[in-house]
Amino acid sequence: MSLTVPPSLLRAAESGSVADDAFVACVRESLPYAWQTVSRVAAALESSGAEFADNEVPPPGEAERGQLLRALASDAIRSSLERHFGVKLAFQNCHRVAAFRPSAVDSDTYRRFVSVRGQLLNQSPELRDC
User: Structural domain of residue 88, as residue ranges?
Assistant: First the structure.
């Protein structure tokens, strides 16, 4: 599933200027599961005093997994989500999304999460196919 781009947004892109909020709206409409997941971890972070909040629940199906992968694998989509929610996103496996406070990006917690060791420790046989 790619983004469902409204004609007006496509015309804006063809003329060279795309408003961030219009692109974010396109992402929200096109990738609802990814949007909900990122929204949830961003809200959890905002309501806590923690350095980060994360989602460890696998997507309910392949379509939802695909949405999450598309959103976080695309530099444009990921950076737009980060700007919109005011967070730094980190991603492991096919579902573990974390939202970090921008000030925590230089923290040991962030470095552990995005490290090779962190990636290896977050593996399990159930997730081999994700």
Answer: 7-127
Average pLDDT value for residue range 37-46: 96
Amino acid making up residue 130: C
Place of tokens 């599961």: 33
**How many separate domains does the chain show?**
1
Distance CA 39, CA 19 (A): 20
The span from the CA of 96 to the CA of 92, in Å, is: 5
Separation in Å, CA 85 to CA 13, 39, 102: 23, 8, 11
Determine, yes or no, domain membership for 13: yes
pLDDT at residue number 17: 86
Residue 1 lies in a domain: no
- Mean pLDDT to the nearest integer, 92-119: 79
pLDDT digits (tens, 9 = 90+) for 54-76: 998 889 999 999 999 999 999 99
Sheet holding 96-100, edge to edge: 52-55, 96-100, 88-92
